[in-house]
């Protein structure tokens, strides 16, 4: 990319990432107020749709700009479009959040929780959910240990390997000529996002077949995708895109199932909400860890 000031690039990604986390996390918290996993699955699908919309808008805007300015630096153009669209999506997320909290069932749950917190602060032991056995975060962590690890590890592997490593793969066929400038975006980024959206959508249909142990096995098997690091310069680009689709699909499927299906020992609104916070923290820890390790490997010229 022709950007001279790399610090600007880092600050831009950090700022947009922070905005994305701030706007997305509260929606996961609201989903945690409901004991059924379908609400969480809806948030996950929306997350996947945002990625697809970003890539789609990126392609459309790039084509329009290139029709007017054919000699524009496409890498720099793609970067600016990506950041701009992501910021717009974050503002849309804020709008969705405020519309969501005014839906009657959601508003009632939020008011009940706020009333419960106020009573606890005043030292009143009477609770709306008197039959609920409140669990500490540590107890919930022990119950959710497999779910938390799967959530973390799935996102860690995905962000370790995507999008940087496939984007730097040797180009073959059409991607070595006219399609070279379109390889990273939309193909590498878009194929992963499409697979991810498909996996998140499929989760509600197949989650009953995936126990926590099965999710753990599949999460560990995703480690095999590391072969992309060693063979990205030696395999056909179409085959590599197929691997990326599979990686995206398993990412969306496992991340959604472990988020939406809680152990039966976690009951009650308070416990479900706390479990959602823990899962959200694990999700972002996986994203951050995978990205940081990928950046460190790139700086060390390992990949």
TrEMBL record:
Cellular component, GO, one term: plasma membrane
SUPFAM superfamilies noted in UniProt: MFS general substrate transporter (SSF103473)
Organism per entry: Rotaria sordida
**GO MF term list:** nucleoside transmembrane transporter activity
Q: In terms of one coarse class, where is the protein primarily found?
A: membrane
From the record, give the transmembrane residue ranges.
42-65, 77-98, 148-169, 181-198, 210-231, 238-261, 281-302
Query: What is the name of this protein?
Result: Uncharacterized protein
- Mind listing the UniProt keywords for this protein, alphabetically? Membrane, Transmembrane, Transmembrane helix, Transport
Compartments, as annotated in UniProt: Membrane
User: Do you know which InterPro entries this protein is assigned to?
Assistant: Eqnu_transpt, MFS_trans_sf
Record's Pfam families? Nucleoside_tran
What family name appears in the similarity comment?
Belongs to the SLC29A/ENT transporter (TC 2.A.57) family.
Mode of membrane association? Multi-pass membrane protein
């Amino acid at each position: 990319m022709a950007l001279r000031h790399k610090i600007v690039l880092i600050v831009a990604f950090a700022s947009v990432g922070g905005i994305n986390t701030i706007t997305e996390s509260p929606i996961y918290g609201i989903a945690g107020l409901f004991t059924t996993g379908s609400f969480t699955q809806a948030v996950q699908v929306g997350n996947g749709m945002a990625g697809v919309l970003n890539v789609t808008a990126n392609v459309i805007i790039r084509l329009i700009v290139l029709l007017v300015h054919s000699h524009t630096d496409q890498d720099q153009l793609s970067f600016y479009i990506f950041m701009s669209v992501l910021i717009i999506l974050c503002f849309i997320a804020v709008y969705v959040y405020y519309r969501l909290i005014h839906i009657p069932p959601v508003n009632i749950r939020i008011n009940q929780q706020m009333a419960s917190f106020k009573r606890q602060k005043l030292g009143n032991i009477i609770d709306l959910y008197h039959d609920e056995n409140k669990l500490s975060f540590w107890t919930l962590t022990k119950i959710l240990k497999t779910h938390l690890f799967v959530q973390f590890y799935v996102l860690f592997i995905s962000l370790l390997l995507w999008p940087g490593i496939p984007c730097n793969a040797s180009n073959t066929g059409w991607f070595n000529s006219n399609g070279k400038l379109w390889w990273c975006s939309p193909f590498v980024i878009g194929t992963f996002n499409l697979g991810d959206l498909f996996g998140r959508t499929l989760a509600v249909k197949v989650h009953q077949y995936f126990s926590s142990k099965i999710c753990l096995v599949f999460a560990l098997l995703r480690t095999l995708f590391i072969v992309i690091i060693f063979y990205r310069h030696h395999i056909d680009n179409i085959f590599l895109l197929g691997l990326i689709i599979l990686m995206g699909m398993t990412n969306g499927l496992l991340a959604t199932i472990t988020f939406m299906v809680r152990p039966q020992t976690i009951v009650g609104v308070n416990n479900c909400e706390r479990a959602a916070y823990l899962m959200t923290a694990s999700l972002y820890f996986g994203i951050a860890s995978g990205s940081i390790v990928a950046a460190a490997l790139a700086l060390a010229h390992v990949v």
